[in-house]
Specification:
Length: 298
Amino acid sequence: MYSRNKRKRSDVLTAIRFLHRVLTDPTWATASIGRLLDGRSGLDGRQGDLFHSRFGSLMGRGSDAIYSDLLRHTFHALSGGGLHLCDIAGAEGELGLKVAGSEDYFGLIYIGDTAAFKKLVQADDAGITIESDAISGSLFEGINRPGTTIEILIGARKFLEGWNSWRVSSMGLLNIGRSEGAQIIQMFGRGVRLKGAGMSLKRSSALPGIHPSSLELLETLNIFALRASYMARFREYLEREGVAVEERFEVHLPIRTNPQWLGKDLVVPRLDEERDFTREVKHILVRGEGAVALNWEL
């Protein structure tokens, strides 16, 4: 099913081919989950496997159980099946993703030219099914509403244009922003926003009470990037600043408040209303040898 030819494919197609394989090849999927749990992902850092000891809360559950939970909670399916790509007729630029036999969309592709992308999928040999949905409205507009089934959002430069969501927990970047590092790092800010309990904007560690032991995992933004040279530059910058970039670390920033200003309006600096800069300052132009100098007299 998965040919090893070297023809160029779009990055979005590469992403959904991966999802299709997860859904249609449970043996490969469970084996891959096992390698991640055992620290044998094949992605090595300076101190061994990048994912070594990163999934402590899942240890002991077993690959089969994790795969079943993945199907149920992420893909909204009781069992695996082929990936269906649905053209949302009422929403320009949107393609819904669902599992064969499931009525709920689990993912959304938000790109510009959907017609060209569908041609790529049709010409591909992965076996992804293409459908048309003339009933559903925009999936993107409802992505932040309670009860939404969309768990995965795939796009390209659409996300550099600006969008707002409290739900971002992981970002995967593939061949995007290899030279526009500043724009991509700015995009990271969309994932560090945390709504918090009662719209407090606070993490659980700053709130009283007893919290689930693994809640901090949901409050952590994970960023993965392939073939992204700007990430290497970002790493070099952190190293120059003395920040460890391989091991996980926590930074605690003490916040001090000034009671004098609590409960007051925002302080905006401005000139005294009785002052007039244009009357108090004189501008004198002095011509010199080949140049004109500007002197200010207060």
